[in-house]
Each structure stands twice: as structure tokens, then as C-alpha cells.
Amino acid sequence: MLSYPFLSAPDFGDVLEVAPGILWLRMPLPMALDHINLYLLEDSDGWWIVDTGIALGETQQLWEQVFDRVLGSKPIKAVVSTHFHPDHTGMAGWLCERWRVPFYMSQAEYYVGLAFGRTTKEHYSWSTERNLVRSGLTADQVARARDKFGGFGPIITPMPTAFQRLEDGEFLTINGHRWQVIVGRGHSPEHACLYCGGLNVLLSGDQVIPRITSNISVPGSEPAGNPLKEWFRSLVHFLESLPPETLVLPAHNTPFYGLHERLRFLIEHHEDQLLALEEACLERARSAMELLPVLFKRELDEHTIGLALGECIAHLNYLYFRGQLARDEDEQGCYRYRSIDATLSRRLRQQRHDTPDQPPMQV
Exposed e or buried b for every residue in 21-50, given b needs 16+ CB within 10 A? Predict the structure, then answer.
């Protein structure tokens, strides 16, 4: 069972110490998920920022408020982004220029972030449209998607023009503590978490969140991707390499204990989703759009339907490449999925219930 050691969260622009030398702060987001958690790590000669907030609204003013009230006589000395999504990198360019400090990020995240930050309507192509048609969008839906196509340049400050690479297994030394870089995949290409054994603290970004499940999507730029396979492998890696009593500092919701319980829940959640899709495709061949209600019981608006579709395709690709779904293209160019046999998923699901400490089988 998860436990939450802090009864309240800091107000926007304020901080709360959650471990020696680690300050938790939050910035607003203009969506249903209305905040992101950011962290300040105190060093002997300055502060490290972990994740940055989005470049909208009052974020910059709130950062200035933090600088005035919190830093004391120490400057910012480095900025770290766990991954490329705009709520984690949106203010990185401004912060690095503001303090003239280095930017730390994994290589894949940095270059994907550069690409998405510079994507415009002109980058919409025949392959983009084909992927939408294959997913089951109507002609009207494809046209609306074309009109809204673009990257997240409007909601970030330009990415820093240089970075220092974070690699899995290396260490950052901050105030005498060694922080190990642990890379997770699936939610993003090379998501860098930071773990301090001396403090037994994990800065988990979006890799492990206590109350919501991270989006695992197939992007239009890699339609044959299999991010759910990478996600499973990462969850098992975290389960096997980190102690269960770790204090987890996530990018959303609140800090918590219960890392192993949460990792096992996430594995089982996605295995349930896989089985549900297989059983839905036993009745008749269906498109990804037709299968959305199998995974998402709530009504989807135009903002969330793209993320939902990407996640649905991630699960379908996983089953297709594992040989449990067949995929045919109809006369309109839409992929339709049909189950070959759901017996394997049922067996694996039962195995998880019988031996809950076992990781999922990878095929």
C-alpha cells in the first residue's frame, strides 16, 4: 500500500523540504493535470534544478519568486530535464540563459526535444496522414488533425544550444551525495531518473507516478515503435535495482513510499489492458479508433484523444509484434486488428496472480 509522508503540497512559488537539501516546488499546468512537481537540490556552491515547468502563464514570475525567497546567497548552478516533454523542458532555455549554467539531459531526449520544439505545420506529410488513416480516423478527423498539426515550440523557451549528456549508470555528485542516473524507456525515449542511495531518494519524473499512469504512446514519427515493450522492461529494471522503501519524488501527484507496489500495479494494469484488447478483437476485426472505449471508459475530448490513440496503438503494436494479433489493411487504408488466440495473455495474467513477484514474460 502506498503512503504519502507529506500532508500538503507547497503552493505555487513556495517550497517544502522533503529530504536533507531537497526542496519540492510546483508550477501550474493549463490542463486537467494542473501542476508539475519540480525539485531543487542544494550543493555546496549552488542549486541544481530538476525539471522546469512549461513556458506559459505565470511560470517565469513564479521562478523569480523562488529565486528571491529560497536561494539565499547561492546561485543556480545547473538545470536537469528528465525528458523532453514541454512541462519538463519548457523553461530550460530561459533558466540556462538567466543563470548561464549547463543543461543536463540524456542524448535521445535532447535531440527529440529539439525536433519537437521546431516542428511546424509545414512538417505535416503524406506519412503523417497515412498513419492517421491507418488508425481509423475519418476524413473530417484527418482534416482537423492537419489544421492543428505542429510541435510544442509555442509553449517552450528555445532549448539550450548545448547540453551535458546523462547516461545510464553514471553518477552526479551533489553536496557530497552520489546521484545515479537510471534510464527508463517507454513514456519517452531515454527518460533519466536520479537515485541517491545515501538518502534513499528517487527523482522519478514521469517514469513512476503514484496516482496516474504515464502515457505510453506510439508517436507518428515512429509508427512501428514498440514503447510498451520498453516500458515493461524499464519497470522490471526499477523493481529489481531499487529498494522497496525508497522515497519517490515524482513529477506529478505527491511524494510517496511504496515503490515496488506501484511498479507491480503498473505492470498488471497494462497486462489487463492487453488482455482486454485481445478479447475485444476476438469478436471481429477492429480499428484502433474503434478500440479506444476498451481502454478508456471516460469521454475523450479533442486534446486527450490523440494521447489515447497513441496509447491504444502502443498496446496493439505490442500484441502484433508478439504474434497475438493479426493486422489487415482494408480498402480505405485502415488497419484492422483481430485476435489470433487470447490464451497466452490469460495464462500470463494468471501467472502474475499466482506468483506476484514475477516480472511479465517478454516474447
Answer: bbbbbbbbbeeeeebbbbbbbbbeebbbbb
CA distances from 140 to 132, 133, 145, 290 (A): 11, 11, 9, 16
> Which amino acid is residue 169, in one-letter code?
G
What's the domain range around 286?
Answer: 280-354
Only one residue has cell 551535458, namely 164
pLDDT for the residue numbered 298: 84
The answer to whether residue 34 sits within a structural domain is: yes
90 and 180 assigned to the same domain: yes
Q: Is residue 136 part of a domain?
A: no
- Domains held by the chain: number: 2
161 vs 360: which has the higher pLDDT = 161
CATH of the domain at 333: 1.10.10.10
Q: Which is more confidently placed, 31 or 109?
A: 109
Sequential DSSP letters for 177-244 = EEEEEEEE-SSSTTEEEEEETTTTEEEEETTS-SSSPPP----TT-TT--HHHHHHHHHHHHHHHS-T
